[in-house]
Amino acid sequence: MKNIRIPAFFFLFLFLLAIVYGAFLFFSIAKPKYYFEPVIVKKESAVRGNIYSKNYTIAKSQKLYGVYLYVNYLDENKKALFIKLFSIYSGISEKRLKNIINFAKKRGKNRILIAKVDLKTKQNLIYLRKILDKKRVFLTNPKTGIRRGYEIASLDFKRVYPYADTLEPVLGRYRKDLKKGENGLEEYYDELLRAKKDGFKKGYRDVFGNIIYDGNSVVKQPVDGKSLLLNINLVLQRKIEKLLSVQKNKLSAKEVVAAVMDSKTGRLLAIATSNRYNPSHISPRDVKNMKISVIRELFEPGSVMKPITFAILLELKKVNPYEIIKGYNGRWKPEWRKTPIRDDEPFEWLSAENVIVYSSNIGISQLALRLTNVEFFNGLKNFGFGEYSGIDLPYELKGKLRSLKLLNYPVYKSTTSYGYGILVNFVQLLKAYNVFNNKGITFTPRIGAIKAYKKRVVSPQTAETMLKILRKVVLKGTGKAADIKGLFVAGKTGTAHVSVKGGYKNIYNSSFFGFVNDGIHRYTIGVTFFDIKAKWPNYFASSSAVPTFKKIVGIMMEENLIKVKNGKLSK
């Protein structure tokens, strides 16, 4: 009997001992009801990098801070004073503050977010806290001796676009919900701009909940995204945008785009459109304007392709600029075509270079027949057509060239030579034309201030010959309205019917791509009107794109980007 009772007593003793030990352990670890954590950790949010030009910040990240109120510590008798002062210092209405506090009390919440503020407002509220403490607006907990009012913590950031629709849609926007850039430069350079890693501050706190910075505190700085410098001249950009908006309405176009590129470096000083949107306030009607038409609107270029065809012939030594070409009095019906080829100006004969000067479809068709399909196809590829331009923007469409098989046929070779049956984008044309103003070398167009890759397309001799011919287009051909005394201005017009459901309608795309040089500076400039519906003759490039080009040069003169010698800009 004794042998049974002794073990039972022993196990009972161990059980009671375990309960005592467990209770001791619980009370050693568990925090009492009014426990006040002596160590505090505050997050410091990393922010997205800024986008800026030489003198202006175009997109920036503004840090946001959360203001958390401890409702139970707010003296009910001084609640009205708190609401009034907090409203003044934060800019939040008194009514909204009352609703937030009442909501918290109904739900039994003590700590509640009452505001999201920027850095300036945060500083104001830190100062206000001192005033409120002096007025004893917040109560002291008698059990802990702690007085809590409100605390301010780093939240995230707000993307700010100070110049509204300027540089849109090329700039793009930041999607806070997706935490990444969308469209344009914001997306293309997202990896560079993106906030990398949040930081934190850790240390003992004082009775007001502030970190005590001493030898025990730890501060880890956030790793922000890097900033992006642009080549864009923001004043020039904005003035061109306003001009394009006026021209769009004046000539009933769907959209007008333009760009100014430094011919010697590939830097884009402006790349503008009439169709823009404010990335901070996007409405349903803005969605169509989010398309970056300079790289995503594919079109048949029309006569601006003639100099490209002519340059390919020159480079292969298959044309002499001074040889004589039959003009057929403006109407030629070869056996391989069902309909005749027509010119706006009838010539019986004209020189090969005048085929470009007076924009002869008949002349360039005859010259193009001298090229083999391989020579023509490779020549167009060499100029960058059917390939991505390499511009620092996402989702570029590279267009379409006719196949080698089709270019065996005279009819397709002919129409391609004057810009029909192929699809290009605006930037491809700008890049291709730069060849003529830069001694046969073209650059990858760059909006961001990063390295632009160059490529030799034709010899310096071919480029120089083409530049002289394009100068004559302005002096006596279809581009006469672009001439400015004291400046070297050259270029080529192009007016092309727009194809709608397989047929050509009385809607046009009108372009002028050219150059303006003053002996020091050399610029390549392009202007294109999409779906222009103006009445005859205003839909022609000579009456739409050319005058717009000239106005752009006038803006550049105002901004001292180019200077006139021995003359002035004529009205």
Helical percentage: 25-40%
Number of helices: 16
Structural class: alpha+beta
User: Would you report the number of β strands?
Assistant: 21
Number of domains: 2
The CATH topology of the largest domain is: Beta-lactamase
Share of β-strand residues: 15-25%
Distance between the termini: 126 Å
CATH class of the largest domain: Alpha Beta
Give the biggest sheet: 5 strands, mixed
**Mass-distribution shape:** elongated
**Assigned CATH superfamily of the largest domain:** DD-peptidase/beta-lactamase superfamily
**C-alpha Rg (nearest Å):** 35 Å
CATH-level-2 architecture of the largest domain: 3-Layer(aba) Sandwich
Mean pLDDT: 91
The unreliable regions are none
Structure description:
The chain has two domains: 39-229, Penicillin-binding protein 2a (Domain 2) (Alpha-Beta Complex), CATH 3.90.1310.10; 234-276 and 292-558, Beta-lactamase, CATH 3.40.710. The protein contains 16 helices and 21 strands. It has helices at 2-29, 79-90, 94-106, 119-134, 184-188, 190-193, 234-250, 293-296, 306-315, 352-357, 361-368, 373-382, 410-417, 426-434, 460-476, 545-558, and strands at 39-44, 51-52, 57-70, 111-117, 150-160, 173-175, 180-182, 199-204, 218-220, 228-229, 255-262, 268-273, 324-326, 331-332, 341-342, 349-351, 441-443, 454-456, 488-500, 503-517, 522-532. The strands form seven sheets. Strands 2, 3, 4, 5 and 10 form a five-stranded mixed β-sheet that branches. Strand 20 and strand 21 form a beta hairpin. The radius of gyration is 35 Å and the shape is elongated. It starts with a helix and ends in a 13-residue tail after the last helix.
